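Good morning N.,

You mentioned wanting to compare the apo and holo forms, so I went ahead and generated the holo version with protoporphyrin IX containing FE. This is what I fed in:
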Amino acid sequence: MTNSIPKEEGLDHSLSLLREGYLYILNRRQSFHADIFETRLLGKKAICMGGKEAADVFYNNSKFKREGVAPNRVAETLFGKKGVQTLDGDAHKHRKKMFMSIMSPERLEKLKAITGKHWGIALEKWQQMDEVVLYEETLEIMCRTACEWAGVPVEEKEVKKLADDLRAMFESPTAIGPSHWAGRHARNRVEKWISDLIEQVRDGKVNPEEGTALHTFAWHRDLEGHLLDPEIASVEVINILRPIVAIAVYITFSALAVHHYPEEREKLKSGNEKSVQMFVQEVRRYYPFFPFAAAEVKEDFIWKDYTFEKGTLTLLDLFGTNHDPAIWDNPEVFQPSRFENWDGSPFSFIPQGGGDYYLGHRCAGEWVTIEIMKVSLNFLVNQMTYDIPEQDLSYSLVSIPSMPKSKIIIQNVQRQ
Ligand code: HEM
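and this is what came out, ligand included:
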């Protein structure tokens, strides 16, 4: 006996998805009283699901695959082609190991030092400025940090342009018209530049330090023992640079949280490691970033009496799982202390995907994200003072990626 999956009637709901953004899946899970429903997106049948058990099955490699899943507009901007996101099976495991090899404790320590250095330099500059648009400036700090940590040489006069190209890659996938095309052009430009750099590393003309992404990826060999195509190695180096720049979004939301919840700010002032960790986790749970992850059913299977047919596009609700009342008490309340007794399940808290880092598609950069956020938070709370003038700090749960409208303007920046 199987159950039929609750179904959203109609020809196509891509527009509703755009209109409802982060809440699209959660709204329907609530109205269907189910963690799963069927709909039609981009002209084809799709299953949407959310919650801890849904995440568990979604990250089961024998049931879902990734090849060919990303729509062209996402591949051409956010992901690039033939990168780790699009691989399955042994090829994925092998490539993922390459990513995880640069996430060692030593490399993370180095990253923390680099991040602190670039925050310090920025802070000097901000003290001379009448006002600072925090998101814009943080994008640049992150771009410098990303390049230095990854071993990618970039000239001072190119930093702003590169930061703009990297941000365009994650800001443009859902945009329409010129903004979307700007994202595609940005990707083409950066891919070409990094691909040339990979060749220069192989020719001995550029010598990045061992253990950096540029060095590791340039010399990585696939399962057949071949070096990666320079274009693919380039896509993978960008898979390090782009998302580090994207951490600017979380840093901006951290500043918003510090502003909105002064009692939490006080706890951070003590520098207590546990308080900082819980705050960062709550920022990643509470604020919107990636709405969902996508995969395709590998072979027919039955889960909870529902039939999943081979080839069906399946979306896992990341935002909705982080706001699922079955998992989180009062999910709409910003409350870092909820992480005090969190069980650490790899399927209940999934802002950067779930499951296992090495075996599945969970974000390779989650530790990087957490460490960079901690260093940045320390600057925001303990190393500087600033005023927040009247401005529109609201953010939308419809536009993806979301961002406070004003991008957070700060004034009178002083070193503490
Ligand atoms: C800015 C905060 C970040 C967010 C919200 C985020 C989110 C995600 C999500 C949702 C996925 C896909 C999970 C899936 O497909 O099931 C992912 C994958 C990935 N992320 Fe992140 N990420 C962030 C930062 C980073 C950083 C800093 C890096 C690298 C330094 C990184 C590298 C990757 C890579 C390589 C993958 C592909 C993993 C795979 O397919 O096996 N991400 N990320």
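The beta strands are 36-41, 44-49, 64-65, 131-133, 292-297, 301-303, 306-308, 313-317, 384-387, 409-415.

Happy to go through it together on a call whenever suits you.

Best,
F.
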